[in-house]
Amino acid sequence: MSLAAERVPWRWLAEGRASRRLVLVVVFVALLLDNMLLTVVVPIVPTFLYTTEYEGANNSAAPAWTEPAPPALKAPPFSSMFSYFDNTTVTVLGFTSVVDLVNGTESSPPPQAPTGSPALPSSCLEGEEFLAKENIRVGLLFASKALVQLVVNPFVGLLTNRIGYHIPMFIGFIIMFVSTVMFAFSGTYILLFIARALQGIGSSFSSVAGLGMLASVYTDDFERGNAMGIALGGLALGVLIGAPFGSVMYEFVGKSSPFLVLAFLALLDGALQLCILQPSKISPESTKGTPVFTLLRDPFILVAAGALCFSNMGVAMLEPTLPIWMMQTMCSPKWQLGMAFLPASVSYLIGTNLFGILANKMGRWLCSMIGMVVVGISLLCVPLAKNIYGLIGPNSGLGFAIGMVDSSMMPIMGYLVDLRHTSVYGNVYAIADVAFCMGFAIGPSTGGAIVRAIGFPWLMIIIGVINIAYAPLCWYLRNPPAKEEKIAILHQECPMQTKSYTMPKTLRDFPLTDDSDAEAENAE
């Protein structure tokens, strides 16, 4: 009985390692945590830098006139406790100082009035020039993750072809855990920058290995589309939870709290990978994959990668610039800076799960083309919002449309490799992740500079028009040619240069026997 009880966990592990659904769960959780860390910093970093650098510098620069303020503020409570007919009360001097402030006879209080900004709402922030410069700095910090991921992705694709997907997935978990802990205890811009760049390395290992693993496990195109939609649902859920979770925890608990929670969840993900994936096992691909540069010369793969890049570039430009624009124009409190992204995240979650199935029926090329048009229209509507409620419609449309594009283009990448190249998926999903990262690298890094030069509304107009203009190119993905069709096209265009090969016929030895004709017919 005891031996049977001991064998139950091992039997469960053996069944789990053979289950495609548990592999999908591992990839889902990895993408969830990666994108929670990606977006949890969006509402935290702008206000954290403003608090530590701008307010800290101003408070330390003017200690002379800020210290007399507390006695004046303590005067009204004491004056209400004593009788106004008692001329011996000292607290009456607090009221005479206010009278002197109005008459202008007191020398120290006048500079206190403009700094306190009593005419403005308490949530409005000062330092217009600092906020304008902060657009660029925050944009570069957000873009550092994607820039590093852009460089690392091709190497991860080659590594997965050599040693398989399991070990790179576990390496990604370790790096992501270190990055999350570093975010929790970083107090300067430089340390936050390093933590963000380190996250890019871990994200590269997790996303390339995870998507490649799914494509290799789900070989049927319809099943692969559904699996990719579910996995991208993990990405969407991470984006959904990240920004609101970060803003609420930062407002009411503290800066380190959301990152410590994510570090604990990352440890659980690592334990799940140890049980299911066997990261110590090296399992290289049985066939050699198509080189990255050969895939990059395929125009159909480039069109699909461009759709991923430009559709995600819109939300990548919003991440560093929208919170600062809300701080300047809407005087939004901290918790609203993350909540503004909630409609986009919810609709992205719906879009990826809905169109993971529908895109295969209506045509993935049509789904992605409509999605890019809706992305452009939604971005054009963002500057029209006057408060956080005005952002619900544009952000919902943006998230839903990006979900349409992502859930269509990810399966198309695997389908194009099956159709036109060798069915090894590490390199093609490295290209897909590179396209995704290019959007998140170019978007924040250039978005902050464009906002400072011509303003936030013009930034939205530029990226919205780019998405609408790119959408018709998705038509070329309607019916991509296969290998045989490509050879036929080349044969028609260059008949003198192409070569055709036929199987050699079997030769018969002489002299021929009476049964030789029957043997020849059977051989044919």
UniProtKB/TrEMBL annotation:
The chain crosses the membrane at residues 21-45, 138-158, 170-195, 201-218, 230-253, 259-279, 300-318, 338-358, 365-385, 397-417, 424-443, 455-477. The keyword Transmembrane helix applies. It is a multi-pass membrane protein. It catalyses: dopamine(in) + 2 H(+)(out) = dopamine(out) + 2 H(+)(in); serotonin(in) + 2 H(+)(out) = serotonin(out) + 2 H(+)(in). It comes from the Eukaryota. GO terms for molecular function: serotonin:sodium:chloride symporter activity; xenobiotic transmembrane transporter activity. It holds the Pfam family MFS_1. It is found in: Cytoplasmic vesicle, Secretory vesicle, Synaptic vesicle membrane. GO terms for cellular component: synaptic vesicle membrane; terminal bouton. InterPro entries: MFS, MFS_dom, MFS_trans_sf, MFS_Vesicular_Transporter, Tet-R_TetA/multi-R_MdtG-like. Residues 72-482 form the Major facilitator superfamily (MFS) profile domain. One of its GO terms (biological process) is aminergic neurotransmitter loading into synaptic vesicle. Keywords: Cytoplasmic vesicle, Glycoprotein, Membrane, Neurotransmitter transport, Synapse, Transmembrane, Transmembrane helix, Transport. NCBIfam families: 2_A_01_02 (TIGR00880). Belongs to the major facilitator superfamily. Vesicular transporter family. This is VMAT1 protein. It comes from Geococcyx californianus. The gene is Slc18a1.
